[in-house]
Amino acid sequence: MIKIKALIISFLIIGNGLFAQQKQLSNYIQSNEIKNFITYKSDNSITAEQLVTLYKRDLDLLTNDKLEILRKENDKLGFTHSRYQQFYKGVEVYGAQYLVHEKDQQIISSNGNIVKGINGDNSPSINSNNAVQKVLSYVNAEKYKWENQGDEQLLKRVKNNPFATYYPQAELVYFDKYFTQVGSNYKLAYKVEVYSEKPLAKQDVFIDAQTGEIIHSYNKLHTTEVTGSANTKYAGTQSIQTDSTAPGTYRLREYVRGGGIETYNMLQGTNYGVATDFTDVDNIWNNVNAQQDEAATDAHWAAEMTYDYFLAEHGRDSYDNAGTILLSYVHYDANYSNAFWDGVRMTYGDGDGVTYTALTSLDVGGHEITHGVTEYSANLVYQNEPGALNESFSDIFGTAIEFYAD
């Protein structure tokens, strides 16, 4: 009996200690005058994990709310950056992520969007299959990516996943298209990603899980308007890395940087699965012709310089900091006057021959790959102010990459 009483007293002491600890977060805060951004005093002893668990109520998170770790990254300055995703009763709160920045095992600052006061029961009135069909009726494309078997097989190779597919899946989320962070504005919804080939579009579509009404959609194609020896179209003669499959046969592939850099010829088509290699017989790439094949070496060199810049200046291994292969596709479609990042690769059009020629210059390549960096580091929604910031970061880093290459 004495042991049981002692055990109960111990639990009460621990519980009261945790409760007291939760109430003392304000003692460690240096400043929280800037919205969604907190700095902490240098004498705190709080780790990132303690902040999101022991002090969750101080962050306005209630019993049904939880911050789950997405990933941790260490930078060259010795900081550890932990990114958390908010969930309500196990369902993702879309756009609600929180970052905690640590050094020497204590938090320095934290920032992000936390949604307060969600009240839902996670019970949709329509199932996921119905949601997908309603979204496809809404998009109403002539042709979709998953109908292209070549692209389906290529995606499985790029993702290294035999089950990878472009066919849309419906995922339950809590969503507010204005991202107000006010819980009463968030609806239970299905998020459905649809990648169409005709017309070319990749979008997230949100459908109310109770009524089946399309709530919102936004574009996910991030566009721009405008060692061998390569005579490039825009950058003069540059050294590039290639590989050789046989004597007298070189192609625009290299595997020294991260998971590799590969550049392919779309032959003015839209089917990535049938894209071919650019080849050369002596590894001196002087392939100027009416088809603008010299632009391929611009795209290849741009990918190399962009990879080198982010690794040398920011310690980042490829756009996702995981060494993922950089894929470039040149000669996309006929008279296509644009370039874009689609979450997997860079794609470059040849221009209309009047206002634009091939859009493969170094600043464009750096711009597009930076969209990948932004996607995997900040995950900015491509609309309104976050979309403008997304484009601005790509413009800034595109210019920085030009200076670096020079």
SSE layout and pairing:
Blueprint: H1 2-23, E1 29-31, E2 37-40, H2 48-53, E3 65-74, E4 80-88, E5 91-103, E6 106-112, H3 128-139, E7 143-144, H4 149-159, E8 170-175, E9 187-198, E10 201-208, E11 214-219, E12 222-224, E13 228-231, E14 237-240, E15 243-246, E16 249-251, E17 253-254, E18 261-265, E19 276-277, E20 279-280, E21 284-285, H5 295-314, E22 326-330, E23 339-341, E24 346-348, H6 362-377, H7 384-405
Parallel strand pairs: 5-8, 13-21, 18-22, 22-24
Antiparallel strand pairs: 1-2, 2-6, 3-4, 4-5, 5-6, 7-9, 8-9, 9-10, 10-11, 12-23, 13-14, 15-16, 16-20, 17-18, 18-19, 23-24
Measured distance between first and last alpha carbons: 79 Å
| Total count of helical runs of at least 4 residues | 7
Query: What is the typical, i.e. mean, pLDDT?
Result: 90
* Structural class label: alpha+beta
Q: Could you describe the largest sheet, including whether it forms a barrel?
A: 11 strands, mixed
Share in helix: 25-40%
Oligomer: single chain
Q: What general outline do the C-alpha atoms trace?
A: globular
Proportion of strand residues: 25-35%
Number of strands: 24
Unreliable spans: 13-23
The radius of gyration computed from the alpha-carbon positions, rounded to a whole number of angstroms, is 25 Å
Structural account:
It is a single chain. With 406 residues, the protein is α+β, with helices and mostly antiparallel strands. It is built from 7 helices and 24 strands. α6 packs across α7 (384-405). The longest helix is centred in the N-terminal third of the chain and has 22 residues, at 2-23.
